[in-house]
Amino acid sequence: MKQADVVIVGAGASGMAAAYHIAKSLKSKKKIYILEHKESPGKKLLATGNGRCNFTNDVIDAESFRGEAPEFAYNIVKKYNKEWLIGFMADLGIIHTQINGYYYPRSLQASTVLNSFLFKFREFGVSIELGVHADNIKKEREQFIINTNRDTYSAKYVVLATGGKAYKTLGSDGSGYKLAKNLGHNTGKLYPSLTGIKMEGLSFKTCSGVRTKGNIKLYSGKELIKENYGEIQFTDYGISGIPVFQISRYAVKTSDKDKYIHIDFAPEYSEDTLYETLKEISEKNPEKPLSDIINAIIPYKLAKALCDKCKNESSGPDVVCRLIKNLRLKVKELMPFDKAQVTAGGVYTDTINNTTMESLICNGLYITGELLDIDGNCGGYNLHFAFASGACAGMDIGGKL
Fold it and tell me: What residues of the chain score a pLDDT lower than 70?
């Protein structure tokens, strides 16, 4: 059995942040193990922000996070705010840059962040055990016994930082929920979030690959649930892109009955103004096909798909104009966990101390990051919460050792 002071399960953002802050605060060296079941650490971190590691955002408010109690995340991120996180990155030796309110390492490489952590762990004597999967954790008196596929570990403190179920290939296989449950914690229903949506109502094969800006509104019957604006990506199954990701969490939680998305591809035009614009182009170019006419407003492949929906290109700009301003598509389902960026749902936050991340059920156990019932918007919010919650746990443990 390997004896440790702290065992951290998961070498992702929150687990590494916890290890760093534990080791940094110690006056004498303690044995800290990070157990990672993949063959290399930080695989999901390397994929964040399209490999550029968008770690925070200029705009952080109560609307940035979701869950049964989203204020849990907001209170943590408000304390460990953008300035704190930029300072944390600087302590690791990372210069930041800001692009349209989104913050990244100056190198625009997530590997810069990972390598900086690994350098500090070598300096601090933190051990990362790779290819080690935690099968079960139990508490015996004041010690946790961690059984893995290789060795058994004993530790006074345990941090569960396994991530959720999104992107299993990057390490988040959902095993952390079982570990938490064995230690007394329950979870709500889990959903994929920040993911694409399978749709009906258009020839998606015709317009697959199109990227165009628009305003998206999610409806359940006549009730507007959520809306967002940005670049929409058309795929062979439906739609994707940041504005779609932002409403996906609400789509999965909304009743399937009469669930639709309405898209306005020209929000700067009123329907009347758009009609007159297209009509004028048509009158000046009487031989021009309708798909070529509306290509003045939207990409050609999308124009073809809308014309196909009209069934007849000679139907006139008035019909297609209504589709450009109010395309209605039926929601089928969300893309699965292996295509989602984060998990919605998780360990209930009312069982976690909001200032330390320690379990209120099992002393010495800390739960951080995506494993909790917290998920954020696109834009660095999930990574910020992971770093902040991990640091919160690490500082508390470090103060007790």
Answer: 253-257, 312-316
